[in-house]
Amino acid sequence: MAIEVRIPTILRTYTDGAKAVEGNGDTLADLFADLESRHTGIRERLIDSANGDQLRRFVNVYLNDEDVRFLDGISTKLSDGDNVTILPAVAGGMR
């Protein structure tokens, strides 16, 4: 099962600069474990192990344009051909 994962600029150091990578898994948790096996360190940037292996607070993940927080979070089921987009929240600016 092939799933396209779009990687934000800030995490591309883990994917050798690739904007998108392919992964496999029945759930989002499985997909992140698969990505970790080939892109060491990326899972830690996405998952908060101190908070019960949930998505980090400032990381947004979309499955086919649906926010996974409104689906089943890290347990969201995946299908062949799905697209997963990782978007870290950005804040700040000048007053």
UniProtKB/TrEMBL annotation:
Q: Which domain of life is it from?
A: Bacteria
Pfam families for this protein: ThiS (PF02597)
Extract the Gene3D superfamilies matched here.
3.10.20.30
Listed PANTHER family:
SULFUR CARRIER PROTEIN CYSO, SULFUR CARRIER PROTEIN SLR0821-RELATED
Name of this protein: MoaD/ThiS family protein
Organism name: Streptomyces californicus
